[in-house]
Amino acid sequence: MNVTQVVLATLTGFTVGALFKFVEIPIPAPPNLAGVMGIVGIFLGFRVMGELGLTVDDLVTALGL
User: What are the strands, taking DSSP E only, across 1-65?
Assistant: First the structure.
């Protein structure tokens, strides 16, 4: 993970969020912590499945289909 990219992405997101508030338009993201954590969960699930190397074929095989 590149820390510089994470910092720049965070600063960019902050700036865009502030701009959205300034021009009084809704943000294109969940407006509460639960929604944001849902997105984090999707990202973590994606990464974990990639690290484990599991695919749809593995699921089909495990289900005996």
Answer: none
- Residue 51 Rama label (left phi>0; alpha psi -120 to 50; beta): alpha
What are 8-47's pLDDT values in tens digits? 998 998 999 899 999 999 887 777 888 889 888 999 999 9
Helix then strand then coil, % of the chain, to nearest 5: 75, 0, 25
The closest alpha carbon to 26, from 17, 34, 37, belongs to 17
**0.85 cut: is pTM over it?**
no
CB-neighbour burial class of residue 20 (10 A; exposed 0-12, middle 13-18, buried 19+): middle
